[in-house]
Amino acid sequence: MSVNQDYERAIREAEPVIAADDPDSALPSPRLGADSLIWKFYGDSRGVLGFQRLAGTENCIEQLGQAVLDHSVIFDDFLGRAKRTGPPVMKTVYSTEPQKWGRTVRDFHRNIKGEISDGSRYHALNPELFYWAHATFVDQVLYITDTFIRRLSYAEKVQIFEESKVWYELYGVSARSQPQTYEEFLAYWDDMLNRFIPHQTVVYATGYIRQGLPRPKKVPAPVWNVVSAPLNAFLRTVIVGTLPQQMRDVCGLEWNDKRERNFQRFARIMRTLNPVFNRLPLRWLYVPWAYRAWQEVGVDPRPLHNTPAA
């Protein structure tokens, strides 16, 4: 059976495959720490530039897009959903109880199931679906760091991938679909990009890019027309620039050589400014959960891992 056939069969099993939790185990639960590259880069505030890449790539896979449509309030409360789901994932990496928070994230998904357009079933804890969701976070660390913070060496990319296995283990979901090497992860990522579809969820979620940011009710239209112009230009260059071409295609997001050049120029400027960012107060450089974790371990991450790849 081919890899593609095996994936299609497994994802349509639509059954949760979770690890047994043993509270009496004498073995310490795995965790990441201050010596990991994921700690250094995942909680960096510049990660906000990849918010659309993270959310969009996840939901371009039909089963996950449908799960959001069926079970989420994203269409009514986008920011509220982000606030509810983001912190537990952050705490899986940065808290002193990573397994507790990983299991919390997993258990949010126990009853998320349904059907997609061809009538086949899905379940959010099916390992093929759950690992893809995790892979989008791994990609975020790799992509945002290499694009906007500093160039990563090949060895560092391998290290981040290896650390991501520990991260995934904390969720307590079967790792049967997890690639075993960084090269396998890259091949897996490319294969998944080719499975993207224009699901209603992701098309809706990128509407603000195509149509422009909606005007706040209290802002007069003439004022908003002036204020929103540079904001929309930023979104259509920098935010769309972070997206893989397959996502631009299924979401109908315009892209051309001029925007690509402008995007690459912005990325180079951001990387050049990395020494400046590393002089910022720690609470500005990191999101709150990461900042508190660095404070608790008594380590200043700003001098760590700052040498860009040649």
Automatic annotation (TrEMBL):
It comes from the Bacteria. Residues 39-272 form the ER-bound oxygenase mpaB/mpaB'/Rubber oxygenase catalytic domain. InterPro entries: MPAB/Lcp_cat_dom (IPR018713). PANTHER family: BLR2777 PROTEIN (PTHR36151), ER-BOUND OXYGENASE MPAB_MPAB'_RUBBER OXYGENASE CATALYTIC DOMAIN-CONTAINING PROTEIN (PTHR36151:SF3). This is DUF2236 domain-containing protein. It comes from Gordonia tangerina.
